[in-house]
Amino acid sequence: MRLCEVFAGFVVGRPKLVIVLWVLALLLSTPLSFALEKCVSYSESKWLPSDAESIRASRILEGFGGGGDSTVFLAIVSSRPFTLESAMAVEEDVERLIGGCGVEALVLGPAGVAELVAENTVFILEKSVEAVNGTVKGFYSVALTASQMYKSARIGATIAWKLVQSYLALLQNARKVYEGARNAAKMLIEYRSQLSKALTELDKIYSTTLTTMKMLHHIAWLHTLSCTSSKDSYKPPSPQKAVEKLVQLVREIDKTIPTNISGFRLGVTELTKMLKYIEKLGPCPSEKDYRNTAKNYIASIAEEKWGTTTAKLVKALLDLIDAFEGPSLEQSRIETIVEQVSSKLLAEALAKHSLPTPTLENIASFTANKWDTENLTATLIRAMIASQIKKLAGATAEKLVEVVLAGRDPVVELVIERQGLVEPTSASARQAIHKAMIELGVPDWIAKIALETSSEKELIDRVAEKTLEKLLRELRNRVDEESYPLLANIVRDIFENRGEINYTKIAVAAAKRVFNPVKPMVRILEEAYGVKVPALQILEQAALAIVSGEKIEPRKLLASVEESVKEQVFESLKNRMVSKDKTTILLIIEYKTENKTIVYNTTTFIEEKLRGKDYNCYALGGVYQSLEVRKSISEDIRRVDKLSAAIVLTVLLAVMGAVAASILPFLAIGASVLLGTAIVTLLAIHGASITSWARSMMIATALGLGIDYTAYVVTRVREELARGGDPRDAIR
User: Fold this and answer.
1) Exposure on the CB side of residue 419, measured as CA atoms within 13 A
2) DSSP letter string over 87-138?
3) Which of 100, 350, 534, 562 has the highest CB neighbour number within 10 Å of its CB?
4) In this predicted structure, what is the pLDDT of residue 221?
5) What single string gives the DSSP state of each residue in 486-543?
6) b/e per residue, 331-342, with b = 16+ CB within 10 A?
7) Would you say residue 554 has pLDDT above 70?
8) Highest mean pLDDT among 17-21, 281-285, 625-629
9) Three-state SS for 590?
10) DSSP 201
11) 620 near 74, Cβ under 8 Å?
C-alpha cells in the first residue's frame, strides 16, 4: 500500500518525467514485440526451412491463392536440382502414399503439368495430322478439277480457233471451191447422158445382132435341126459385178462413153464377117455361146470403126445389158442401169476424198434422183469439205464431218447458197461461223471470243481466264472462308502453269488449313509456358508424306515433340512451381474429401515419409495449415496465460506486500474460470458453436476484471482495519 502511495505521489509530482518514460516504453515495445513473435509466432517460417535459399513460400504461392480446405501444397526441397524425371518420380511417390492411405486425391506438380500439357498438345496434333489426310485429298480433288478444266478450256479454245480458221479459209476460197464442184457435177451429168444414149443404141444393136446371128446359124446348119438351144438354161452375169467392171474400165481408160454407135449397120461386109463367127459356134451352140459370139462380133466392128478403147467400153456395156436380162430392154430398165452406173461413178469420184464407203454410198443414193447441176454441186462441195476436215482432224472431227455431209453446217450451206460469192468478213459470214460452232457443241462464249481474237494464244489465254473466274466463283460458294484463299492460290497456280499440279503447294496449303484451328493452342502454349511447338512444320511434313504416297504414323511423327514440350514446360515453371536453382518443387494435392481430419492426417503422413536422406517436405495451405495455425495459436495462448498469471502474481505481491492478500484474487478468479468452463461445456454439448480460444478468453477476462475488483476490495478492507473499523463495513 505504501508503494502505491509512493508511486502515485511520483506520477503527480513529476508529470513531465512520466511522459518521457512513457514514450521510451512505446519505443521499446517494437523490438520487444518482435522478440515475443520469435518465441510464439505462427508465421510461415514454422512450416518452411528458414535457411532454404532455393524457395520462398510467398513467391511460390502467389499464383495459387492458398487453395480451399481440401487443397494442400507440398514444398519439397532436394539437395540436388530436380530434373523432369526426378520430379515425376516424387509425384508418383506422393500418389502412391496417398493411395496407400485409402484416400482419393489429385496430385499435380511441375512434372505432372508438363506431362499433361504435352499429352494434350500431342493429342491435338495427332487429330490435326489425321485431319490433314482428308484435307489433302479434298484439296487435291479441287486441284485435279482445276487441271482438267484448264486442259478442257485449252482444248476447246484450240478447236474453236481451228474451226474459225478453217471456216475463214473456206470462205476465202469459196469461189474456187464452188466452181470446181460445179465443173465436176457437169462432167458427171454429161457422163450420165452419154451412158443413157449408148445403152439405148447398144441394146438395139445387140438385139438385132443376136437375132440375125441365130437365124443365119440355123440356115447354115440345116442338117442339125435336131439340136435345141434353151434360153432358160442361160444364167446372166451379176448386175453388180457388171456395173463395177464398167466403172473400173471407165476410170482406167479415162474416156467418155461413145455416143456415135448409132452409125452401126449390118451390111454385106458385116454379115460376111458374122458368118465367120457363126462357123466357130459349131452345130449346137448354147445361149451363152450365142451371146458371147454376138458381143465379140459387135466389139470387133466397134474396134474397126472407133478403136480398141471404144471396143472395150462397148463390150462392157453389152455385158451390162446381159446382166440386166437384155437385150430388148424396156426404157425404165435402161434408166435403172443408168442410175446404178451413175451412182457408182459418183462414189468412185468421191472416193478420192478419203470418205468411208458407207458414206459414199449414202451420198450417191441421196443424189440418184436429183441429177441436176445445183444438187450435184452441193453434194460434191459437202463431200470435198468433209474430206478436208477428216484429213486435218482425223477421228476427232467425226461429228463435224457428219454435220457437213448432212447439210447442217451453216458456213458450208452459205457457200452453196451464195454460189461461192461470200465475203469472209461480212456479218452473214461471221454469223454463220458462230452458228456452226454452236452446232458443233462449242460454248457460245468461247465462240464469241474466238471470232474476236487475232491469235490462238490470245484465245487460249482469254478462255482460260474466263474458266478461272468461273471456277473461283464456284469455289467461293462451296468452301468455307478459311479454305477459299488457300484453294484459290492453288487453282491460280495451276492455270499459270498450264494445268500442271504442284503437289508441294497442295501439301503446304492443306497444312495451313488444318493449322488454323490449332494456332490458338500454339499461341497459348507460347504465352503461358514459353513453349514453341513446330505445329505447322509437322503438318506440312505429314501432308508432303501423304501426297508422296507414304504411310504416316502420327504417334511416331510426334514422339520427339512430346518430349520437347515436357522439357520446355518444366523449364517454364521456374519461380512458379520450381525454384530458380531447381532444388525445390511445389506439389498441389487436391483431396476428394471434406473430412479435415483425413486431410490433416494424410498430409502429416506424407511429410513424415518423404523427409529423410534426399528430401525435406513442408506442407502448406488448406485445412492442414488452418489446423497447424490453430494448434500453434493455442500453444502460444497457453504460454501467454501462464506468463501473465506469474506476472500478475508478482505485481500483487509487490503491491499488497502480503502473500495471503496476493493469492486471494486468484481464488476468486479460479472459481469463476471453473464455473465459466462448466457453462461453456454444457453449451457445446447442446450444439452451440464454441471457439477453441474460449477458455483463454475467459482466463484473460477473469484476470483483468477479477484482479481489479478483488484488489480494490482487499485494499478497502485493509484501510478499515487500519482505522480499527469493521471489515464488513469496508466491503459494504
Assistant:
1) 5
2) HHHHHHHHHHHHHHTT--EEEE-HHHHHHHHHHHHHHHHHHHHHHHHHHHHH
3) 350
4) 63
5) HHHHHHHHHHHTTT---HHHHHHHHHHHHHHHHHHHHHHHHHHH-----HHHHHHHHH
6) eebbeebbbbbb
7) yes
8) 281-285
9) strand
10) H
11) yes
Q: What is the pLDDT of residue 632?
A: 59
Do residues 513 and 142 lie in contact, with contact meaning Cβ atoms separated by under 8 Å?
Answer: no
Measure the CA–CA gap between 391 and 66, rounded to whole angstroms.
94
Query: What is the reported pLDDT for 667?
Result: 66
| For the ranges 220-224, 523-527, 550-554, 667-671, the one whose mean pLDDT is highest | 523-527
* The total number of residues written for the chain in this structure: 732
Distances (CA, A) of 678 to 635, 671, 683, 685: 22, 11, 9, 11
* Grid cell listed for 221: 446348119
User: Cβ distance 720 to 678 under 8 Å?
Assistant: no
φ, ψ at 433 (rounded to 5°): -65, -45
Q: Which residues contact 359 (CB under 8 A, 6 or more apart)?
A: 405
Higher pLDDT, 300 or 69: 300
What is the Cα–Cα distance from 341 to 336, expressed in whole angstroms? 9
DSSP letter assigned to residue 617: E
The pLDDT score that the predictor gives to residue 463 is: 92
The strand order across the sheet containing 71-78 reads 105-108, 584-591, 71-78, 615-620
Q: How far apart are CA 374 and CA 671, in angstroms?
A: 150
DSSP 619: E
Angle at CA of residue 70, ends 69 and 73, nearest 5°: 95
Q: Which 3 state secondary structure label does DSSP give 230?
A: coil
Q: Which residues of 184-205 are buried (b: 16+ CB within 10 A; e: fewer)?
A: bbeebeebbeebbbbbbbbbbb
Q: What is the DSSP letter of 262?
A: G
Q: What are 129-161's pLDDT values in tens digits? A: 888 888 888 998 999 999 999 999 998 898 888
Q: What is the residue-averaged pLDDT of the chain? A: 74
Report the Cα–Cα distance between both ends of the chain, in Å, rounded: 21
What is the per-residue pLDDT for 640?
A: 62
713: its cell numbers: 476490495
Find where cell 502412391 sits. 96
Angle at 56 between CA 55 and CA 58, to 5 degrees: 145
Which among 392, 406, 323, 331 is positioned nearest to 362, based on CA atoms?
406
Q: Is the pTM of this model over 0.85?
A: no
Helices 357-367 and 373-393 pack at an angle, to 10 degrees, of 160
State the alpha helices, DSSP H only, in 286-425: 287-306, 308-323, 331-350, 357-367, 373-393, 398-405, 410-417
Query: What CATH architecture does domain 44-109+579-620 belong to?
Result: 2-Layer Sandwich (3.30)
CA distances from 97 to 34, 77, 88, 427, 604 (A): 39, 18, 14, 99, 11
What is the bridge-based pairing of β-strands 105-108 and 71-78?
unpaired
What was the pLDDT predicted at 491? 93
Is the pLDDT at 470 greater than 90? The verdict is yes
Model confidence at 61: pLDDT above 80: no
499's grid cell: 494445268
- The mean pLDDT of 610-633, rounded to a whole number, is 66
Average pLDDT over residues 95-101: 87
φ and ψ of 372, to 5 deg: -120, 165
**What does DSSP say about strands 615-620 and 584-591: parallel, antiparallel, or unpaired?**
unpaired
Burial of 586 (0-12, 13-18, 19+ CB in 10 A): buried
Asked if residue 394 has pLDDT above 50, the reply is yes
The tens digit of pLDDT for each residue in 683-706 reads: 767 666 666 566 667 677 776 666
Rg (CA), the chain: 65
Q: Is the pLDDT of residue 606 over 80?
A: yes
Domains of the chain by residue range: 1-40, 44-109+579-620, 117-136+503-563, 173-417, 629-731
